[in-house]
Amino acid sequence: MLQIIDLHVNYGGIAALRGINLTIEENQIVTLIGANGAGKSSTLRSIMGLVPKTKGQVLYKGEDFTHIPTKDIVGKGIAMVPEGRRVFADLTVEENLILGAYTRSDQRAIAKDIASVYDTFPRLKERNWQKAGTLSGGEQQMLAVGRALMVNPKILMMDEPSLGLAPLLVKDIFDIIELLRERGNTILLVEQNARKALEIADYAYVLETGQLVLEGAGQTLLADQRVQEAYLGVAR
Length: 236
Prior knowledge:
10 helices, single chain, alpha/beta, Rossmann fold, six-stranded mixed sheet
């Protein structure tokens, strides 16, 4: 469904990604794990066209997406939940959701999808009049996911969705990610909670300093001694 081929990204003279290759199959959860600065967020941002690619290709359903504008990528059905939520603080919950559908024109379908977001996140429905900046961190994360769902995406990319959340809310977020897969979404997940990410992932990649060093089924990497020692806090 989505292929990244020999992708290189540089920031100035620093190589953030050095020839990575990924395949994201339809209706799977694929996760990227690695230390801070490994290149995980750069991978998502480069797919979305938010940072320039030095070399390589991004293919979506066989179509070359390497150099097309971000708005066209969104229009094709790829959405991202950014790290730090990035909700529009001065707008209401519902206004944030409406903005998430900016590439769409069918008002009836948009209204139906807003109702679907409220079914998924009842707390947002209760607060649909409230300014997003006054929500709790967990509620803002729900809103960020809901806003991305308003794109009606085929692929949903999520950058550190559990960061800064209380443990109970972390569980809720991972439950939602699994629910979205059951509903037919494909998920590309970047997550600092490597254990939780691997537990739900169909497939996983390990990034170190801009290079892929390991890949495999989520449960396989969860049991891998190298992954356990480096990312799961398991002593040898």
